[in-house]
Each structure stands twice: as C-alpha cells, then as structure tokens.
Amino acid sequence: MRLARELVIDARPEALWALLWDVPRMAACVPGCSEAQEVTAHRTYRARLAQKVGPISLSVPVTVEVTAAAPPRHLALTASGRDPVVGAEIAMELTLDCEAVATGTRLRIGAEGHVLGKLGALGHAVVQRRAEETLDEFGRRLARAIGS
After folding, report:
1. Is the dihedral of CA 74, 129, 47, 25 positive or negative?
2. Whole-angstrom distance, CA of residue 56 vs CA of residue 41
C-alpha cells in the first residue's frame, strides 16, 4: 500500500518542524493514537493506535523509530506493531518533507505500508481506503494544531 498527500500549512517550516517533535500535540493529530511517549529523545517512540477497518477493530501497540532527520526539511520514520487479539500486523515507512512557500509550508507526506493477518485479508481496497481517510484526517488535525 502506498499513500501520498501534499498540504499547504499556514506556518513557517521551523514552526511545523517544532510541532512534529511535540509528542502530545502530534499524538492528538494522529487519528486513534493514544499512550504516545518518547522512549529515546528524537529517536524512538511508543504509542497505541486504535482503528476500525471494515468489520475489524484493532488496537496496536506501535514502535516508531526516526530513520532520518534534516531540520526543518525532512523527517523519515518507521512504525510497526502487532495487535495480539486480532492478529493483525502493520509496518509503515513514512516521510515528511517541508518546503517554504509564500503561504507557509508545503508538506509532502509519503507512506508505504504492509498489513498482514486478518486485517490484510480484508483486501487491499478496504485497507487502502481507510489509510487514505486516516491520512486526510491527520492533515486536517495538523493544520488546526499549528494554528492553536
């Protein structure tokens, strides 16, 4: 599964960059995210993601690792976890690229992921649609968070 979105955020890249590292504020931007905590500063994080995909509800403990950071332009992450009850396993690679534009910052979000287990058995189209909805909601929440 591959996803890509491009948003223009009404803030300078430095302000958006600061928000990306603010764990409580970022967790509030990610739909279904709770229990977010920094394990190793600017390197490793843990969180829980709860989602309903089709008929399946899952709650996945996730480990997030920063794989590259070039302030305030580029951030790359991996996220992986497994729901022990549902048996669903997820693995994602995410990139966030910031570019200054006249109206603020152009944020390009790229994601590539794999879903295994019962969730993967739902079919690519169902999982892809839910992932796109989640990414769109993340963008809306991020735009609101930067304004507050």
Report:
1. positive
2. 34
